[in-house]
Design goal:
With 227 residues, the chain is an alpha/beta fold. Strands 5-4-3-6-7-9-8 form a 7-stranded mixed beta sheet, with helices on both faces. Strands 1-2 form a two-stranded antiparallel ribbon. It is globular, with a radius of gyration of 17 Å. The chain has helices at residues 41-50, 53-59, 73-80, 94-108, 127-131, 157-167, 184-194, and strands spanning 30-32, 38-40, 63-67, 84-89, 117-122, 144-148, 173-179, 197-201, 216-223.
């Protein structure tokens, strides 16, 4: 279970409500909900990391793109920090995501009351998915891209890398979190070989709290400046 304090956030006037007062502890890498959907706990570890006051302040007012939002807990939490979040997923996931975001509004308050916002957009990764999405009609630069537990299928790695490249501007910061599974690291081999990005792996001992999870990795990624 996730303690309520994990989702305590700053109000629109800047006052906090027990922000970061307690770290969650997870025994398993996911939780199955009564409706059969899953919360992947690595995404909540990243939310806990990003809610730290210095990082939460940096998110306020910024545009955030989340790839593979699932039930939307991470995106909704960032929106309640004051970010303007676009949650994306496949069309088959969208009804569940949208209903979950409504539930989170009722449980924690709508992001607008905290100065943020959240919207949903259907997106399949890769060039074809992008061309078929509403993003093809927009000219929006994102300050942050969030990729939580999305590298476990090797057949999607090239599509995800293309999507990173398409949305990542010169100043964009990508945060990736995953639990080590077969093929997960192969994605970062592709990232390295692409020569497109600088990748910083955060240190579990000093940079972030794994909240009881083992073999969890957070990376901070930015576009490489070619000389």
């Amino acid at each position: 279970l996730v303690p309520t304090s994990l989702f305590s956030t700053a109000t629109c006037d800047g006052n906090s409500h027990d922000l970061m007062s307690e770290a969650p502890t997870f025994k398993y890498d996911f939780e199955e909900r009564p409706d059969g959907n899953y919360i992947w706990h690595a995404s909540l570890v990243l939310l806990y990391y990003l809610q730290a006051p210095e990082r939460g302040k940096a998110l306020r007012g910024k545009r955030v793109l989340e790839l593979g939002s699932g039930l939307g807990h991470l995106g909704h939490g960032l929106a309640r920090l004051g970010a303007h979040v676009t949650c994306t997923d496949q069309v088959k996931v969208m009804p569940v995501l949208q209903e979950s975001l409504k539930d989170l509004d009722r449980e924690h308050g709508a992001p607008e009351s905290f100065g943020g916002s959240v919207r949903t957009v259907i997106l399949d990764w890769g060039e074809e998915g992008f061309a078929a999405s509403d993003f093809a009609k927009e000219d929006v630069q994102y300050d942050f891209i969030i990729s939580a537990e999305v590298v476990y299928l090797e057949e999607t790695h090239d599509l995800l890398l293309w999507t990173w490249d398409r949305f990542c501007g010169p100043e964009t910061v990508i945060f990736s979190v995953f639990i080590n599974r077969p093929f997960s690291w192969n994605f970062f081999v592709k990232v390295h070989d692409s020569n497109l990005f600088e990748v910083e792996q955060l240190d579990e001992e000093k940079d972030f709290n794994p909240c009881g999870l083992e073999e969890i990795y957070i990376h901070k990624v930015s576009r490489k400046v070619l000389k």
